[in-house]
Amino acid sequence: MDTGATAWVLTSASLVLLMTPGLALFYGGMVRAKSVLNMMMMSFGALALVGVLWVLWGYSMAFGDDVGAGLLGDPFQYFGLKGLMEDTTTEAGGLPAMAFVGFQAVFAIITVALISGAVADRMKFSAWMLFAGIWATVVYFPVAHWVFDFSLDEHVGGWIANDLAAIDFAGGTAVHINAGTAGLVLAIILGKRRGFGKEPMRPHNLPLVMLGAGLLWFGWFGFNAGSALGANNTASVAWVNTLVATCAAVLGWIVTERFRDGHPTSLGAASGAVAGLVAITPACAALSPVGAIVLGLVAGVLCALAVGLKYRLGYDDSLDVVGVHLVGGLVGTIGIGFLATANAPAGAEGLFFGGGFDLLGRQVVAALAVMVYTAILTAVIALIVKALIGLRVEDDDEVAGVDQSQHAESGYDFASLGGGGFTAGSGTVASRTATRPTEEFSA
Amino acid sequence: MKLITAIIKPHKLDDVKAALEAFGVQGMTVSEASGYGRQRGHTEVYRGAEYTVDMVPKVRLEVLVDDLDATGVVEAVVKSAATGRIGDGKVWTTTVEDLVRVRTGEHGADAL
Fold it and tell me: What is the CATH number of the domain that holds A290?
């Protein structure tokens, strides 16, 4: 067994797991105070549900032997992870199958959680959970097979990884373009928040957003450097590229804001970090560090400009899953076609380094394939869930805040002056108690 | 008796409180308030979307005083709350018909 690689992959998996609670903070701080808990619960709900589905059939659908044309793994081969507990590593090397299962599980979880940013403040929690389970099964598990399942010996993998041979080191297509496209389609079918574009919908807690961005960045080193599946040079290059592209994207975003809006903002810095992380995800083993800086800058500037599109086009992608993850994912995936250098571990050449249009073409095909597949399937799933149980909360529940109607909780006690809540806060306390029938307590 | 209500900048509360204590005022009620006058609010920009924030945080201070002290108290508040910049607030006086001290049941000026 390669103990170094095993230790690094298990560590990376734990880092990537932390990204989902980090995302909950990042998204939670951006919504209004009345829906912060629902926003965070969508991440935690996805974590819980997709974690179980992954063990039952997700891993098998993504990494089982291909059942045809590189589109899907055999869902029954490793159902319930059967046969994977045995140690198949040799003295010479190898990574336990379970380490890889765990590492890929947290990828599936965060991809589903990312979508929730598009549907803030207005979706029923039950509808979100049903959507999340079906979407993971029908969209993510197959796409992970396309992109991440490499053929080896007798094992036959997915078509993007093997037949098309596009470069997606850690999930620009399978994770970010996938989640971004799904967010766009789901936001359109769900409809706008009440008052979108008219009422101010300010982030209620920017320090939470900054904390969430910090945790995402930290966890992302596991996401990208861990995707080397070894404690080696490729992981190290990916680590440095992940650092520097993200730094450049923060600068790109806040400089854009400085010139467009007058001030560099903290929300811009946090968003720029995530945009840079998204863009470098597919590219971190294919670029030189200077190439990573260029890619990060482009991602920071383009994503800062892209988040304004929703007001012009009139869809309410509430927390900019499209502007950051879809646009950032496209910048990274297609950017490889321009910026890849043969000196990097991936060993491919992009347009700017004498590789011609060959790699660029493959990158574009991979990005488009995932976008089209996800857009169609997401629409079908959303319409089915809508027909079954409805997607949106009632209008008055949306105005009062989804935390109340979906979870019967409030994120904060707003009784602002002390004294046991019976000074300035007494009205709030009384009305909050009054909304709960007393039967609930006795039952 | 008069009720003097002052809307002031939050950071001037301590100065006003000190001035009123120096004047001999025995008690006051303070609450957090928000609103705007001629200065209006300000604008904030989040991911390129501009929001006008109309309501500015203020402190609302209420003091009950004897008719004879009213002018002096208003003067003390205005002097201590002023910064000379826009948004300093307002002070107004209203006549109070009756007043009761809850503990003793005393009425009128005795309850001050």
Answer: 1.10.3430.10
